[in-house]
Amino acid sequence: MNVLEHFILSVYKIEDITDEYEKKFGKPSKEKLLKVFLEYDCYGQKDKTELVFRETEWNTAKENGYFLA
Predict the structure, then answer these.
(1) What total number of domains does the chain contain?
(2) Residue 32 backbone dihedrals phi, psi, to 5 degrees
(3) Beta strand pairing status for 33-42 and 66-68?
(4) pLDDT tens-digit series, residues 7-19
(5) Helix count (H) and strand count (E) of the chain?
(6) Which secondary structure element, helix H or strand E, spans residue 64, and what is its range?
(7) With 0-12 CB in 10 A as exposed, 13-18 as middle and 19+ as buried, what is 66?
(8) For residue 60, how many C-alpha atoms fall within 13 Å in the half-sphere facing its CB?
(9) What is the pLDDT of residues 42-59, one digit of tens each?
(10) Is residue 10 within 8 Å of residue 30, measured between CB atoms?
(11) Do residues 38 and 4 touch, judged by C-beta distance below 8 A?
């Protein structure tokens, strides 16, 4: 399977789910976890989806304008 660039078109909602993670798995997260509802374009295929990112991953994706998946 190839890893492709998914260009971020719109961000609709960002939710911090760190507390949910810690309650569900019973261990602390080393980093904030964010649930992001966004629209992306991957080689002309546009879609809306909800993804979970670590805070540093999300900051990198925002800076670059894309994420790899």
Answers:
(1) 1
(2) -60, 140
(3) unpaired
(4) 999 999 999 999 9
(5) 2, 4
(6) helix 55-64
(7) middle
(8) 8
(9) 999 999 999 999 999 999
(10) no
(11) no
Best CA proximity match to 40, nearest among 27, 25, 50 = 50
Those residues with Cβ within 8 angstroms of residue 56's Cβ, 6 or more apart along the chain or in another chain? 31
CA 38/CA 57 separation, integer angstroms: 15
Rounded Cα gap, residues 33 and 5, in angstroms: 21
Residue 46's domain comprises: 5-68
Instruction: Give, in degrees to the nearest 5, the angle at Cα 13 between 65 and 44.
Output: 45
Measured distance CA(69)–CA(22) in Å, rounded:
25
Structure tokens at 34: 């964010």
The single-letter code of the amino acid at 49 is: T
